[in-house]
Design goal:
The complex is a heterodimer of chains A (427) and B (99). Chain A is α/β, with parallel strands linked by helices and 427 residues long. In chain B, 64% of the residues lie in helices and 0% in strands. Classes of the chains: A alpha/beta (427), B mainly alpha (99).
Chain lengths: 427, 99
């Protein structure tokens, strides 16, 4: 039985081995259709149980969910169970795991045939472009596409800086477990505790958003153990790269392009991305917009997406055609990226427009040195009406994710328009 | 000469006192607007995340409010950790514009 460390939680002091993980997975009596985890380890246990049972589970935290009956039924249909209306995961109690089967399960994660044959579906909530987060169902194939298993990764130690249900966090999980590496839970820790954890656990690999690194890279700490830094979810300014290089002098710094819809697609060294040969026919640039072939999409998106290519909304600057090399210029110009979460201002405006007191509203992003951008709005009230800022935020919070609720609200006489009569989307 | 130095010193004290109090008020308001309990012992040594409980989004809003009040983005060249560090950055900014 594998006594190597699997999970270390500096907040609670918990240290759990792969052997203990096997026992905990074996104790899972039933996989629910939606699982709301209180912590990362609990979520990983359920995830492995779902993979082993080849069933489906939607992963949720306190801020997102709940999958409705139609979404869970869709998952049932794609797996091919007979319980189309069953809201409860699907699998009857499964007895596992024998002492060796956790190793078998882990080995199967890097076996292309086993991965393709596995019928499990994992639901991940996106930050959503609608008022309610959208559930995206992924196969094991799309979740494990980017993992690399190799003896050179045998001694990696991963710092988990994402929330437990964040797609990028799942990428860290699969990469670590496929190589039987330890994972250290950094999400939710303050900077001082993170610095301590990085050194005490000798973390070698960190994957996080630029917002995380902005908060971490202050003060004079230097972490020599870290060999690899990956960033994704937002654009990174050059000054941040410099700070990262000072704090992590032995680390290779890479940008990741990934989305909840498509998973991890591209990795860059420096600012530019090169499309690897195997993806060359699956990635195209049209009118400066990056587009991905539908075969790269999560299963649930594929079914909804009629065209051959998925428009990401990310605008790029092509640096060379063969190999295809580009750098990102901006996200879809009117979307707002708040610490890696995309906010559709039109949707937020629609919500505000539902208030009787409001005549017109304009939602826009404002650059911010902590999270990249924050959501702001200008509100023109109907004549004679009054509405307090706190009331607006409270009402919006009933239907929007926290990062979507405008943090800065201005009451104006009239809404700013561009020369062509459109609302200004940036400030 | 002595009188001039004294006047300058008093002006600096008044400015410090005024902006120090405004900064504490501003941070206190942000603490309350985030639904947290305001610690009466909040001081310049208070750590923004560990003691006052700000997360990244709440810190982001705080930077905007500080910039609106004092004209400086205190997080522009790196995140600060304590109230006192914010005060120092504001002070440096005020010094630079008065020179």
């Amino acid at each position: 039985m594998n006594e190597n460390l699997f999970w270390s939680d500096p907040a609670s002091g918990a240290h759990l081995s792969y052997a203990e993980l096997a026992i905990d997975v074996g104790c899972v009596a039933r996989v629910p259709g939606e699982f709301r985890a209180s912590g990362s380890y609990e979520l990983f246990v359920m995830l492995l149980a779902a993979i082993k049972a080849e069933t489906h589970v939607a992963l949720a935290t306190g801020e997102v969910g709940v999958a409705d009956a139609s979404e869970l039924s869709e998952a049932n249909r794609s797996i091919g169970t007979s319980k189309a209306a069953d809201l409860d995961g699907g699998a009857p109690p499964v007895n596992f795991l024998s002492s060796g089967s956790i190793d078998v399960l882990i080995d199967e994660l890097s076996d292309e045939q086993c991965v393709r044959a596995n019928k499990c579906r994992i639901g991940v909530f996106t930050s959503g472009t609608s008022g309610r987060p959208k559930l995206i169902w992924h196969s094991l194939k799309s979740l494990t596409r980017a993992i690399q298993v190799s003896p050179k990764h045998a001694d990696d130690v991963w710092g988990l800086a994402y929330g437990p249900t964040h797609f990028a966090g799942l990428q860290v999980f699969f990469q670590a477990i496929a190589n039987r590496n330890p994972i250290v839970g950094l999400f939710g820790l303050g900077p001082a505790a993170m610095h301590e954890a990085i050194d005490e656990e000798s973390i070698t690999h960190l994957s996080a958003t630029p917002t995380f690194y902005r908060l971490l890279c202050t003060g004079g700490n230097v972490h020599s153990s870290v060999k690899a830094i990956t960033l994704g979810g937002e654009q990174m300014e050059e000054s941040l790269r410099t700070r990262i290089e000072v704090m992590f002098p032995n680390a290779r710094v890479r940008n990741i392009y990934a989305s909840t819809e498509a998973g991890t697609v591209l990795v860059a060294d420096g600012e530019s991305f090169v499309v690897p040969g195997k993806y060359r026919d699956l990635v195209r640039i049209l009118e400066s917009e990056l587009q991905l072939h539908r075969s790269l999409l999560a299963d649930s998106i594929k079914h909804d997406h009629a065209g051959e290519y998925f428009k990401t909304g990310d605008l790029v600057d092509v640096l060379s055609e063969e190999p295809l090399r580009f750098r990102f210029v901006s996200r879809r110009t009117d979307w707002i990226n708040v610490g890696g979460y995309k906010v559709n201002p039109h949707q937020v405006e629609s919500r505000i427009a539902e208030f009787e007191e409001v005549a017109e509203a304009r939602v826009y992003g404002r650059k911010n040195s902590v999270v990249g951008n924050i959501v702001c709005c200008d509100i023109q009230l109907c004549e004679g009406e009054q509405l307090h800022e706190s009331a607006i935020k409270q009402r919006l919070a009933e239907n929007l994710a926290r990062h979507e609720v405008p943090q800065i609200i201005n009451f104006v006489e009239s809404i700013s328009l561009t020369a062509t009569g459109k609302k200004q989307r940036s400030k | 000469m002595v009188l001039m130095c004294l006047r300058k010193f008093l002006a600096i004290l008044r400015r410090l006192d005024r902006f120090g109090m405004t900064l504490m008020d501003l941070i206190g308001e942000q603490v309350v607007s985030c639904g947290k309990r305001l610690d009466p012992k909040m001081s310049f040594d208070s750590r923004l995340r560990e003691d006052l409980g700000f997360d990244s989004l709440e810190l982001a809003v705080l930077t905007v409010k500080i910039e609106a009040e004092f004209g400086v983005d205190v997080f522009a060249d790196g995140v600060v950790n304590t109230v006192g560090e914010i005060e120092e950055k504001i002070q440096r900014h005020l010094d630079s514009i008065s020179e």
